[in-house]
Amino acid sequence: MTSSANAPRTTRRADPALESGTEPQELLPRRRPTQERSRRKFEALLSASRELLVDVGFESFTCEEVASRADVPIGTLYQFFANKYVIVCELDRQDLVGVQHELAQFDGEIPSLDWLRFLNTFVDHLAGLWTTDPSRREVWLAMQSTPSTRATGAIHERALAEQITRMLTPLTPDTPPERRHTMAQVLVHVVYSMLGFSVQGDQTREDAVAELKRLMGAYLSVAEKESRMQHRRAARAGERERPRRL
Questions:
Q1: What pTM value is reported for the model?
Q2: Which of 165, 176, 202, 233 is the most exposed place for a label (fewest CB within 10 A)?
Q3: What is the pLDDT of residue 87?
Q4: Is residue 130 included in any domain, yes or no?
């Protein structure tokens, strides 16, 4: 009999969703349900996954425990999800869709004179979601765990940044589109990083959220001012060119 001390160790791959030597790909469910009965099982699995993430964290998260908590056969889980990495990416997509819906309701408030007040209200709303739903932070942290989850998270962030880019257009109409898109990407990354920071235990949530609002408000105020200056410079240049054409 081979002793446990001499038995070969099983090397656990850091990211079983990836094939060796391939570039990270977006992780998607094998299929999404179309019938009501399947949709209920799908949603039960995702709900159980959120609960499990909060209870044990991503390292101890297993598909078997998800299926058990959802009262769904493990084979049914694997019909939808190849592994736990795909599950957490679908949870992140759920959170993305929710934020996009919230942003759609917020859209149109810019460039109101009260845009800063609306911005503060929206940040408070997001921070409240992270406080009342601890799974949001756990999902965000899990998305940083492997190359493929990070690649999928980057795709989700880009989708959100594209929406924010459109919202920023009325506030910064004379800012070059490429810079506006970069600004949106910066805002998305900073907001999620600061929301994660806000629910850590070594500072109060209110202080962290207040600093986030200061950062975003100052950043967008400068961007708005620069856009106005760019407009005035373009107008002056046009006035100088006009006599020459005459």
A1: 0.78
A2: 202
A3: 98
A4: yes
